[in-house]
Amino acid sequence: TFLVSSSVVALAGIAQMFGVPVYAWLGDIAKSNLLNSIGNINSFATFLVAPLVISTALCVSPRVFKQVCQRGKIGMVVVGITLITSLAGLIIVDFWVSWTAVILGVCIALGGSFWHDRKLYTRAYTAVSIAVIAISTLFLVIQSPIRVGIGVEVSPSFSASWSIAQETLKSDPLTGSGPGTWNVDYTAYRS
Fold first, then answer.
1. Burial letters for 126-157: b for 16+ Cβ neighbours within 10 Å, e otherwise?
2. Nearest to residue 168, comparing CAs of 187, 185, 190?
3. Tens digits of per-residue pLDDT, 65-81?
4. What is the pLDDT of residue 153?
């Protein structure tokens, strides 16, 4: 049920980002393409990490995957749809923290599968994990070509965040600027 509901959340969030009024019943607030059922847009991306990592992890272990899919092809379809919708949502939002979490989560899933079974399975199972890691690494380095009007202040890139952190530490190397001051630091040091 988590994978199914995650896919619904991802699809609704993606549709809203492209201007489809999924939440029209909320009135004027629904006019924002950043509205989603999780919270702000970065929380949405952070949420999508879990279903993407779980669906990828299910592809790593054939034994667990077969247990999920024992009722026929419905389980495989759910895993596939979850993987695709979560990945699509992350590509659209393009939040570097989420990409880092995906890489870490999938590497842990691969390591756990290897540790548990002492072998990696066929290429078909590991190819999904390798593809997710490759896509995550690619979007960690380059910007997503899909733009839906998410401002840079909402979704700063890794390089922009790193530059701002460096400038902040230059101004006060011992303590930085303190917790909860990212907006102030961003305004002061954005490029």
1. bebbeebbebbeebbeeebeeeeebeeeebbb
2. 185
3. 666 666 557 777 888 89
4. 46
